[in-house]
Amino acid sequence: MSGRRERGVALLIVLWGCTLLAIMLGGFAALARTEGLQARYQFAQTRAHYAAEAGVMRAIEGLQSTDVASRWIADGRPYLFAFDDAQVTITIVDEDGKVDLNAASGDVLAGLFKAAGATDDKAKALSAAVQDWRRPGDAASPNGAKKPQYEAAGLPYGPRNGPFATVEEARMVLGMTSSLWAAVAPALTIWSGRERPNTEHAQPLALAAIPGLGQAGADAILASRGQANGAAIAGGNGVTHTIRAEAILDDGTRSSLTSTVRLRGIRSGNQPYAVLRWREGDVE
Predict the structure, then answer these.
(1) CA nearest to 193, candidates 260, 96, 75, 74
(2) Strands 99-100 and 188-189: what pairing?
(3) How far apart are CA 95 and CA 186, in angstroms?
(4) 3-class SS at 36?
(5) How far apart are CA 29 and CA 36, in angstroms?
(6) CA 253 – CA 47 distance, rounded (Å)
(7) What pLDDT was estimated at residue 47?
(8) Distance between CA atoms of 247 and 253, rounded to whole angstroms?
(9) How far apart, in whole angstroms, are the C-alpha atoms of residue 251 and residue 256?
(10) Is the dihedral of CA 118, 120, 121, 123 positive or negative?
(11) What digits encode the pLDDT tens for the residues 73-118?
(12) Which residues form the T2SS protein K first SAM-like domain (predicted)?
């Protein structure tokens, strides 16, 4: 009787051991499968990322082509580029066609905010606030904002009292709302040094910011670009550009890069470009 009981206990232990082993093996298998999926995902993301980087490099080469007729045009039109098994879409925007936060006149700034949907009073106040942000001194301009106005609004900071260091810094200007920022951000720069955008490259919103141009004038400029000779347009490219490259693999894996570069020309012993800003993924 005692022997049977011992054999039964031993059988029960063996069964529990087999069950525990099966659970452990199942867990290891699930873990291995998860790690395999993660590795494949990371590998695909890496491939897409480098395809997007290749797109940025291709754009830099296209912008500096010695053949003006084949030179890429920096007016926002899309270029398609195949890299390995990825399809890369590239757009290039010339920075001198944007509104420069550090150089634009008050009228241009007000025109930009009004074109983006702000009322006349709101546009003028934001224009003054932007100018006060970049202007040294503690005295606010009419409708502008220096540190006392920021404190009165409950903000723990004041204006820089110097040039904008980044485009994104404009989000901190007193009166800037998230919706207005989203509308104007693509039309802003700190790299052109121009009082008003260059009409040869300006996008619709930046064109609308130019005083006296009007919607009819902006439409005429945009229409003329479509009729102009490509070589003539490319020959007018500036030196600082924002390049966006989006790569999509056959399996749908996607990666995007946005880079602002300043071209230096292709000369022996000289780096042909300098990167001013580099952002990965979708940006606002």
Answers:
(1) 96
(2) parallel
(3) 10
(4) helix
(5) 10
(6) 9
(7) 92
(8) 8
(9) 16
(10) positive
(11) 998 889 999 998 899 999 999 999 999 999 999 999 999 999 999 9
(12) 94-191
Tokens of 217: 């004038």
pTM of the model: 0.80
What is the Cα–Cα distance from 281 to 149, expressed in whole angstroms? 36
CB 113 within 8 A of CB 180: yes
| C-alpha 138: how far from chain center | 33
DSSP secondary structure letter of residue 66 = S
CA dihedral angle for residue 117, residue 123, residue 125, residue 131, rounded to 10 degrees: 120
**CB crowding 198-219: b at 16 or more within 10 Å, else e:** bbbbbbebbbbbbeebeeeebe
Task: Decide: helix, strand or coil at residue 152.
Answer: helix
Q: Walk across the sheet containing 240-249 and list its strands.
A: 75-83, 86-94, 240-249, 254-263, 273-280
Nearest to 47 by CA among 254, 280, 244, 245: 254
Tokens standing for residue 146? 């220096």
Specify whether the CB–CB gap between 55 and 81 falls below 8 A.
yes
Q: Binning pLDDT at 50, 70 and 90, where does residue 22 land? A: confident
β-sheet bridge partners, residue 66: none
Q: Return the number of other C-beta atoms located less than 10 Å from residue 280's C-beta.
A: 13
